[in-house]
Amino acid sequence: MSDSAKGPAAGYIYQFELALVELAKMSKDDVLSIERMDDLAIQDEKGHYILTMQAKHSISMTGSTFGSTSVDLWKTLVNWLDKLKKGHIVEGNNFIAITNVKIPLTSIVREFGIEKFEVVVDKIKNIKINQEKKIKENANKEKKSPAIDATLKRIDLVLNDLSNLKIILSKFSFKEKYQLKDDFFDSIQLGSITDDSYKSNLYDNFLGWVVSRSKENWVNENEAQFTKKDFEEKYDHLRKVHPLKKALFRNKKDIPEFLKINLTEIRSDTYIQQIEDIERDIEDKEEIVKDAVMDFILCDIEISHLITSMNTFTKPDYEDFKESCIDIWKKVKRKHAPKDKSHYSDEEQNNIAIKIFDEIMLDVKLDFMNTFDFNNSNKYVQNGTFLKLSNEPKIGWNPSWIKKYTI
């Protein structure tokens, strides 16, 4: 590939990468298009454009884009003005300029939407005056100025449509040195995962899907459009084909509070009472209670850490996991106690409680958010969640648990 071809090629790839990020972030009823209304555009459920994006990429990390006299800036503004004028996009749309490198500190872009509109217009006029001076200077030196000429023509077009320019600047924003991969993984709640190999493989598969599907549509003279449902179906497929074996949760011994838990101060919480009321070997029960206290406390610490401190997932995500735990508990309970509790003697109910508790704590395997699995070092989160449910209580081990612990 020639040097001159590297820049455009990287720019095209960057555009597809941005599409992938926006797909991960957009609402369920939105539709994303590539090279239809803009580099990228998003429509809401009513078909109204709510976002149009111009992306500029530089293969040199010391390069810059969207400078005050750059062709790309004024070309972008003229493009947006034209679409507003023709009614293709309407007031309320968000206009975004985005780049992988730094925008010059002196660029007028930094004042769009922040400085008063009249002040920005005056500065645009000053840019025009300075560019006209450069043309005269070059003419005196018998130099041609095609790039400056092109910029001036576009500046004139911008100044001739101030009403629409005001609309654009009121909804304008920019992103520079944009770390799109980080944003993508944060959007699908994988930002804290340290398995770079898994993340790279997932990203490449997603990107390949966006590129190939866009190409297929364009070859068949269709628009390259994607819905949130398209993205979620692809994500579900990739998770099945490439499951994440690295777990989200910390090894219990890596949690700072691990060594500070005093297992001799066992509380009389409901989850402890449920375990204590099961008749079994005294020494075994003592170990089981200690493990339960540890799992219960560490689960609280870890869930709070990931929701509050790390923003890795949300409280509703954890509530969904708790519902999954309840569903599994129901299946295990039905297996070991298929009849009404009145059919079982006290001894039989105790034996059933042992079977239900042991299967839940030792054998059940779940994953979190259909992505993260558990292993021996972090199963405290899964077991701790079951114990939390038995503390509320929403589940129990003995067939008569409702009568024993809720009435």
Strand content: 5-15%
Average pLDDT, rounded to a whole number, is 88
End-to-end CA span: 76 Å
Low-confidence stretches: 1-7
What is the CA-based Rg, rounded?
Answer: 30 Å
Spatial strand sequence of the major β-sheet: 5-4-3-2-1-6
Secondary structure tally, helices:
14
Largest sheet: 6 strands, mixed
Provide the number of structural domains. Answer: 2
Structural class determined from secondary elements: alpha/beta
Beta strand count: 8
- Proportion of helical residues: 40-55%
Give the SSE order as H and E letters: HEEEHEHHHEHHEHHHHHEEHH
- Overall geometric form: elongated
Domain ABC-three component systems C-terminal: 282-403
Coiled coil: 268-295
Organism: Brumimicrobium glaciale
Keywords: Coiled coil
Describe the overall structure:
Helices cover 55% and strands 8% of the residues. With 407 residues, the chain is α/β, with parallel strands linked by helices. The protein folds into 2 domains: 5-244, no CATH class; 263-405, no CATH class. It has a 6-stranded mixed β-sheet, with helices on both faces. The longest helix has 28 residues, at 282-309. It is elongated. Mean pLDDT is 88; it is low at 1-7.
Give a brief rundown of this model.
With 407 residues, the protein is α/β, with parallel strands linked by helices. The chain has helices at residues 3-25, 71-85, 117-140, 146-159, 162-170, 180-187, 196-219, 228-241, 270-276, 282-309, 315-336, 346-363, 380-391, 401-405, and strands spanning 31-34, 40-43, 49-56, 94-99, 172-175, 224-227, 367-368, 372-373. It has a six-stranded mixed beta sheet, sandwiched between helices. It has a two-stranded antiparallel ribbon with strand order 7-8.
